[in-house]
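User: Endonuclease/exonuclease/phosphatase domain-containing protein, Frigidibacter albus:
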Amino acid sequence: MRRLSALLILLCAAPAGAETLTVMSFNIWGGGGNEGKDISQTVAAIRAAGADVVGLQETRLEGETCTAEACPPGGESVAPAIAAALGWHVHDQTAENAALWANAVISRHPIGAVSANDLGVELDVNGTPVWLFNIHHDDEPYQPYQVLGIEYGPAPFVQTAAEAEHWARLTRGAAMDLLEADMAAAGDAVMLVTGDFNEPSHLDWTPAAVAAGQQPLAVMWPTTLRLTEAGFTDAYRAAHPDPVAKPAFTWTPMGDEADPEDHHDRIDFVFVKGAEVTAAAIVGETGPRSDIALDPWPADHRAVVATIEF
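Assistant: Predicted structure for Endonuclease/exonuclease/phosphatase domain-containing protein:
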């Protein structure tokens, strides 16, 4: 009797005709190829996350000449091979612009139209159109390093939140303009944004996080703020609103968080508009920063996965 009651509750909780979709953002570091790994570990991570669609970043290897100021990708994209291993559809984002660095979208649902700047694709989710935009922003200059006095490229160090915000807008504003232009293709459809933003969230660099010693100062980071002001929801923070209890660092599973030459942070995101977030998790190696653990972990970023309902 109790089992029947529980089933009725679950059935009543889900709106009639509702669709669910699990979306993942994953910087795959060349499918592990930058450390000589094959794609099987990356495929295993996607399966462990239970994803239906994945925005991939760094589907190609770092080029032979790779510095903070310039690091062109080299080799072929591993996205088609990953999609083939899963039996999924694939779109390699081959355009060259400020919002892409070897990106691709893979999906168990069919992929249709592509936006003008190649940032987004239309998915057919059982007859419902859903647009997924997948981006990879510039990492230089990297404002957390500018704030903390960590050498990385020629940009000056900064002292204040206003300076950090200014440099973030200079670094990623043009890419966000491209994203906003491409979003016009989506109309009123459900929209998702996945990506390695190479910029933290204004929901993480808060006074409470500063008091907890997690961040050096409170900053209204403009990239996440711009999406929030456009009506998007940060999926992970919707499910886990306290950045002190769940800092959710995606950069990086490698190295010591106390290393003075780095700063661990949340820079990988899933943003949602037009749908309800029902769950979200960080996927990575076994340890306190991962909600879903898989060993060995193939990438230098942890991934983020979110389930939505619409």
